[in-house]
Amino acid sequence: MLTYIFVIAITAEAMSGALAAGRRNMDLFGVALIAFITALGGGTVRDMLLGNYPVTWTQHPFYIYITIGAGLFTIIIAKYMRKLNRIFLLVDAMGLVAFTIIGCNVAMKLDYTLPVVVMAGIITGIFGGILRDIMCNRTPLVLRHELYASVSFIVANFYLLLIYFEVDENLTLVLPFIVGLSLRMAALKWKWSLPVFTYSPDRWDN
Amino acid sequence: MLTYIFVIAITAEAMSGALAAGRRNMDLFGVALIAFITALGGGTVRDMLLGNYPVTWTQHPFYIYITIGAGLFTIIIAKYMRKLNRIFLLVDAMGLVAFTIIGCNVAMKLDYTLPVVVMAGIITGIFGGILRDIMCNRTPLVLRHELYASVSFIVANFYLLLIYFEVDENLTLVLPFIVGLSLRMAALKWKWSLPVFTYSPDRWDN
Amino acid sequence: MLTYIFVIAITAEAMSGALAAGRRNMDLFGVALIAFITALGGGTVRDMLLGNYPVTWTQHPFYIYITIGAGLFTIIIAKYMRKLNRIFLLVDAMGLVAFTIIGCNVAMKLDYTLPVVVMAGIITGIFGGILRDIMCNRTPLVLRHELYASVSFIVANFYLLLIYFEVDENLTLVLPFIVGLSLRMAALKWKWSLPVFTYSPDRWDN
After folding, report:
1. What is the mean pLDDT of residues B106-133?
2. What's the rounded Cα separation, in Å, for the pair C187 and C164?
3. What is the pLDDT of residues B45-68, one digit of tens each?
4. Which of helix, strand or coil describes residue A196?
5. Which band of pLDDT confidence, cut at 50, 70 and 90, is reported for residue B108?
6. Is residue B202 included in any domain, yes or no?
7. What is the pLDDT of residues A113-166, one digit of tens each?
8. What is the DSSP letter of A54?
């Protein structure tokens, strides 16, 4: 099941990448590349960080095709994207949860300690979006808007708690989705966000 | 022969990096670093992605010296760069083709599948320029201007086709250069570019 | 001793990251992440580049906690940071020297050649700050301001020279700190900086 959700998730992430590329007037190639990086960049950074070679997508050419395909397809349906907004945000939230769980699993299989497992989950969850924003020359949105990265953090910890208490395997997968999706959707609806830190000195640090 | 072209290519890439650093008023150290990253960053990302350790340039100190040297030398000759523009663009295009072919070779030697080999070629070809632009805080040019990344894509596929049909070894090397250079030079001359995707909603995605 | 200084240094770097995040109005999560990346990003890039797995911080959860803790703590004491400016700059300079030496040591242990050892030292010293600036969407300051990256370069070479001449072990550690700190503090006081390369053509390179 996680694999199916993963494929849906990378499709959604690829589309979000394509739209960001469109805001920067990139050409077809740029759209395809940003879509690919947004969808698979988080997992790639995680794999490189944990020394988990070969990097996952290099063993699944299908992931390359689906993300590039989704990116280019987005160009065609871009004008309907506003109407699809709600579905899109839901799929994106599913992706965030799926990515986080998969990231935790990878790190656990490699016997990393708990804090690293949590970090691996978060990195898988949010780094695709961070790379997207870096490549589109804007400050990463996931670090500023409605609860997003925090959802990944909570899901990772909740998931590990369920594993620790040896909860039924299906529940261990389903519950984080329920918690993560509810939290993210509620955050979007009621504009929940973390406190923001604003700092504006004249000039002093290097 | 590929090695000679590679050295010429990293020199050209280093110079392009130095000029980008100059536009951001960087100091000598910044110029040297950006030159180095522009020239060798693509191969570095490829090596780290494919798990191809040790990373190539760490085994060839000469590459470090030549790129840093070329970067600093660019400061001296910057005022003549406009006159050298045409030569520069030609050498840059040679670099793009050489990088792409070398990237494909590295991935093939590690037994990656075809789509990954193509990706490795493209990444080697264009990621130096992408890193340069990220470090100089601008949207990557290679994803927006006249055919550039696409040339890398076409060269990679053409090169693999020649290998597949077991074409004579020299031709397998020479033909991609002819195709790649012609295409890139034609694109520059007649301003060929891929269709651009422009997307400008009010605000809706995360 | 180097370990103590390292912990102090990552604390200082984390704080500098948190302040940069504050300038971009990031939320608590963003502050924590940027603090973490600023403090440990340089070593991470070095480890990934040299194939030094597992990456250092993954084996020391304490480093994760201290950097994130320091980042969040910075929010509380931000208003006093201007008064602490001088101490902060001193600690930051200590960090630069400590990071550089540690980076050199890691590369030497892996039997890399001298130029790579120097590069590893510099990367460890300055890449945390570069990643911080990239993630906060600004041109890396370390490549533009008062001698900073150059201090790392000089310290790395000086340190290797002391090792080459088999100077007493304690001196080999203390002298680079004296040289590095003096140089950095003098650069800050008298506004020493490297010559800047300014290049502003109309438009010509790719």
Report:
1. 95
2. 28
3. 999 999 999 999 999 999 999 999
4. strand
5. very high
6. no
7. 999 999 999 999 999 999 999 998 888 877 777 788 899 999 999 999 999 999
8. S
- Rounded CA-CA distance A76/A92 in Å is 19
Query: Burial of A44 by CB count in 10 Å (0-12 exposed, 13-18 middle, 19+ buried)?
Result: buried
For all residues of chain B together, what is the average pLDDT? 90
Confidence of residue B204 (pLDDT cuts 50, 70, 90): very low
Q: Is the peptide bond before B140 cis (omega within 30 degrees of 0)?
A: no
Residue of A nearest to C36 (CA): A119
The residue type of B204 is W
Give pLDDT, residue C114: 95
Q: Quick check: is B169 in a domain?
A: yes
Cα separation, B93 vs B10, in Å, equals 11
Residues of chain C with pLDDT under 50: 203-206
Q: Coil, strand, or helix at residue B196? A: strand
**91-130 of A, contacting B, C-beta below 8 A:** 92, 129
Element housing C134 (H / E): helix C114-135
Half-sphere exposure of A27 (CA within 13 A, CB side): 16
Q: Evaluate whether residue B204 is within a structural domain.
A: no
> For A187-204, what is the mean pLDDT?
78
Q: pLDDT at position A204, please? A: 46
Q: For A180-186, which contacts have Cβ atoms below 8 Å and span 24 or more sequence positions?
A: A180/A93, A180/A96, A180/A97, A180/A100, A180/A151, A180/A152, A180/A154, A180/A155, A181/A90, A181/A93, A181/A94, A181/A97, A183/A147, A183/A151, A183/A154, A184/A93, A184/A96, A184/A146, A184/A147, A184/A148, A184/A151, A185/A89, A185/A90, A185/A93
Range of the domain at B11: 1-194
Smallest CA-to-CA distance from C144 within C190, C197, C200, C98 is with C197
Domain for residue A201, yes or no?
A: no
Q: How far is A2 from chain B (nearest CA, A)?
A: 23
What angle in degrees, to the nearest 10, is found between the helix axes of C61-77 and A114-135?
60
Q: How close, in Å, is residue A24 to chain B by CA atoms?
A: 7
Using a CB–CB cutoff of 8 Å, tell me whether A31 touches chain B. yes
CB of C27 within 8 Å of a chain A CB? The answer is: yes
Domain count, chain A: 1
Angle at C171 (CA atoms; ends C170, C172), nearest 5 degrees = 90
In this complex, which of B112, B204, B206 lies closest to A58 when CB atoms are compared?
B112
Contact assessment for residue A27 and residue B196, using Cβ atoms and an 8 Å cutoff: yes
pLDDT band at B160 (very low <50, low <70, confident <90, very high): very high
Q: Please classify residue B170 by burial: count the beta carbons closer than 10 Å to its beta carbon, then call 0-12 exposed, 13-18 middle and 19+ buried.
A: exposed
